[in-house]
Amino acid sequence: MEQVTAMKQSTIDQKPSIYSLQLQELKEWLKENNEKAFRAEQIFDWLYTKRVTSFEDMTNLSKQLRDRLESAFTLTTLKTIIQQQSSDGTIKFLFELHDGYSIETVLMRHDYGNSVCVTTQVGCRIGCTFCASTLGGLKRNLEAGEIVAQVVKVQQALDKTDERVSSVVIMGIGEPFDNFDHMLSFLKIINHDKGLNIGARHITVSTSGIIPKIYKFADENMQINFALSLHAPNTELRSRLMPINRAYKLPDLMDAIRYYINKTGRRVSFEYGLFGGVNDQVEHAEELARLIKGLKCHVNLIPVNYVPERDYVRTPREQIINFEKTLKNHGINVTVRREQGHDIDAACGQLRAKERKEETR
User: Fold this and answer.
1) Known catalytic residue: 348?
2) Which top-level enzyme class is recorded in the Swiss-Prot or TrEMBL entry (predicted)?
3) Which of 31, 71, 149, 355 lies at a C-alpha separation of 20 to 30 Å from 132?
């Protein structure tokens, strides 16, 4: 109880992260504090190009401005609790936040570059029955700067070998659309050419299906890649796997997806985890093909990672191939996700569940 009270008090006392500010917001803060607006670009250069870890390191700013920044903001630093590296180069970080809670961030190495998977919440309230992230429920949302700091922290690690983060996926712990405003601010900060300058088409956000926010995201009309965690071809099965389907029914969800495609002209990726004996039969593939036929879409089949706290098992390789082949026979664009991090705690939320049991009970 004392630890929980301390965590809550720490959150109340914590200054906002400077990483949470978009460039225009920083310019406005500077003007309000009788500073020149052009200083914002200098500060962004220190944060995102030079990637300093202290306001004192911003040497082309006056001492007075550095002191003001120090008193108004925190330069969010994440404490690395555990860093696991897979034989395939995947690195999973367990970071500690200022209030003692922990989050996961993953660096994945591909032929086309380095991708970072970020977390948007401490825990998750969605309750998907196959996911370790939801164990213990939702503790709190991350502010935009805490999400940005994950990318910065990984980039600082890559700086040692002259590599860079080339893409970002928002598929870590939490439901991004349940923390919509902070997520949106994060997207704009990392996409900005004065920020981390990660191209919109190299950023992917995923949702479990919060319908009102899908419409809202479509109206933003960003060039960000959009993915839906589908995992089932019908309402009954999806409700069993994903309780959110009881609030946001599959037919209504598909209407929202059609709105997104029509509004943006962009393709939607459907994430479909394969769970042995649950949703991986040929008849499920046939039903899935009927559900999404005619949509501008792609299906990403995901052989699940085994999570000790959950009962699901992997689909046999031959069955995965049959599922993929069935979709292709119906003209569906489909790929099977390449497995990464199989020799570490790769499943989302798994490392946190194992190492921070007080958070995930």
Assistant:
1) yes
2) transferase
3) 149
